[in-house]
Amino acid sequence: MQHIRIGTRNSALALWQANHIGHLLEMAGFSYELMAISTKGDQVLDRSLSKIGSKGVFTEELETMLREGEIDIAQHSAKDLPSHLPEDLELIAYTEREAAHDVVLSLDPSLRLDTDKKLKIGTSSTRRRAFLKHFYPQHEAVEMRGNLQTRLEKLKQGTCDAMLLAYAGVHRMDMSAYITQHLEIAQFVPAVGQGSVAIQCAVTLDPSLKEQIRAACNHIETEKCLLAERSLLYQLEGGCSVPVYGHAILKEDSLQLTGGVLSLNGQQKIEFTQIGTHPEILGKHLAGDLVNSGARKILQAIRAELNP
Ligand SMILES: NCc1[nH]cc(CCC(=O)O)c1CC(=O)O
User: Which PANTHER family does the record associate with it (predicted)?
Assistant: First the structure.
């Protein structure tokens, strides 16, 4: 029986995801173990992600372990993967995506964003912050970093009235009881990759092993959607710290990709939807639409604001 060493961050969410990959591998006849590490993104909690600077603060250390052969594969939330990845590593599988939308969590079950009351909303994502300012400018966004358990504690301590999170993580961590509102995908369009788990390995990993891991874990429909979303991100050079977003769905054989760029203050929003069949080309076309409508200018302003 083949044994697979899975590298992962050591947050509860990451460990859940790594075990999920492990179970998929077990069903295909593998055994597995987890090698869990704490990354820079997990350790530096006093600054927002966009200010830590380098892209991939959650992924760098695991990439080194892949190169040095300390692990066979690494699992990442697909959302946390930078658009440009090192060429000696590759993504070989994307797990079936669960519901990709964002949710509102609060201790007050009746809390909704569409209220005149001015709420304090915790979020660490520039995309959610910008959407919030765009659609609900009456509220105040407050910085909220740390793993999901830490954030729930902060909510309970009264740091904010509510917080915005990805449904996928909330569901995996059994925190759904605190959801007071499910946000529409068409309104708060999700981040690229949200809801799926990606498997990364060294290009030098044994080809037949790669194929078996892929057969056990990859969900082909999800993969098509993520390739389109990641192609868009690649063209716009977005990382998890910039509010470039994209979400694709598969309808029969055609892909429908919605993507956009938001200014940090939420005042400018450029968003398009395109239909296509080839994921990479679709992402490229949509990026072209966005650029032709002024996306680069918004992105330059955001970068200047984040890294003065
Ligand atoms: N950046 C943190 C992160 N990375 C993946 C998820 C949720 C799970 C997923 O999207 O697959 C989260 C938490 C959040 O954004 O609420």
Answer: PORPHOBILINOGEN DEAMINASE
Asked if residue 205 and residue 167 are part of one domain, the reply reads no
Q: What is the pLDDT of residues 261-303, one digit of tens each?
A: 999 999 999 999 999 999 999 999 999 999 999 999 999 898 8
How far does the centroid of ligand 1 lie from the alpha carbon of residue 239, in Å? Answer: 14
Rounded to 5 degrees, what angle do the CA atoms 126, 236, 62 make?
70
Question: So what's the pLDDT on residue 45?
Answer: 58
Which residue from 9, 40, 55, 79 has its CB within 8 A of the most atoms of ligand 1, so it is best to mutate? 79
Considering the domain architecture, whether residues 110 and 243 belong to the same structural domain is answered as no
pLDDT in tens, 197-214: 999 999 999 999 999 999
Residue 249: its H or E element: strand 244-251
Contact 209, 235 (CB under 8 A): no
Is residue 131 located within the same domain as residue 176?
yes
The closest of 53, 75, 113, 102 to 242, measured between CA atoms, is 53
Whether residue 87 is found in the same domain as residue 164:
no
Looking from the CA of residue 102, the nearest atom of ligand 1 is 16
Residues 88 and 108 in one domain: no
Nearest atom of ligand 1 to the alpha carbon of 98: 11
Q: Into how many domains does the chain fold?
A: 3
Residue 287, domain extent: 234-306
